[in-house]
Q: What sequence folds into this?
């Protein structure tokens, strides 16, 4: 294994419920996907795969970096998120021992949640806030093999159900951001409120703006 941890960020969908492309929608001055990327980097995750589909070329312009690879889901109009997840897991199969999975529209999970998951010994770790399962989900090499060979229905949830009993652990965390996404405009307004009221969650925005300033001044 080249690295202990990797991360799969799915960003291939059409964002039809939101009405605009979610990964590039700005939150506190930075695209949603940039918040996600920054959180993984702050946790020491140095292998990140962004799964593209719709507007793939626009996504590639966000952050050229040696830590990030863009993998294209060419059938994004016809398949579901699990197809994108499998594309990322296949890439990481022999590269990382444990891999985080998250959609690009869950931008405000805490870095501390990632560290708590890393400390948890289980094939699959799902962060949980007030009884609701959230993201990012952490998988190990055993789970990755099972997920890649799964041929049943119900997407990622169905694949998790095919694992051996006791393989999946739900980890309670004090992190409302791990269960908040941007499926609709109403959801996005709740994210904006959380970003304003919790200073810890604004750091990725400041890092992004500094990064963009450095790049454009070169």
A:
């Amino acid at each position: 294994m080249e690295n202990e941890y990797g991360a799969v960020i799915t960003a291939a969908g059409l964002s039809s419920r939101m009405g605009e492309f979610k990964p590039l929608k700005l939150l506190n001055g930075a695209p949603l996907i940039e918040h996600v990327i920054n959180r993984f980097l702050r946790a020491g995750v140095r292998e990140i795969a962004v799964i593209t589909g719709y507007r793939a070329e626009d996504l590639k312009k966000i952050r050229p970096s040696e830590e990030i690879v863009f993998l294209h889901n060419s059938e994004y109009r016809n398949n579901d998120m699990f197809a994108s997840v499998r594309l990322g897991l296949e890439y990481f199969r022999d590269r990382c021992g444990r891999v985080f999975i998250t959609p690009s529209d869950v931008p405000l999970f805490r870095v501390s949640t990632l560290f708590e998951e890393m400390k948890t010994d289980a094939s699959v770790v799902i962060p949980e806030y007030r009884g609701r399962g959230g993201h990012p989900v952490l998988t190990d090499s055993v789970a990755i093999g099972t997920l890649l060979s799964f041929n049943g229905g119900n997407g990622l949830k169905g694949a998790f159900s095919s694992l051996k009993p006791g393989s999946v652990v739900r980890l309670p965390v004090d992190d409302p951001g791990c269960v908040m996404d941007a499926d609709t405009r109403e959801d996005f307004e709740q994210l904006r409120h959380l970003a304003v009221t919790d200073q810890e969650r604004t750091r990725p925005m400041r890092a992004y703006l500094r990064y963009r300033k450095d790049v454009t001044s070169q």
Q: What stands out?
A: Residues 3-217 form a domain with the Spore Coat Polysaccharide Biosynthesis Protein SpsA; Chain A fold (CATH 3.90.550.10).
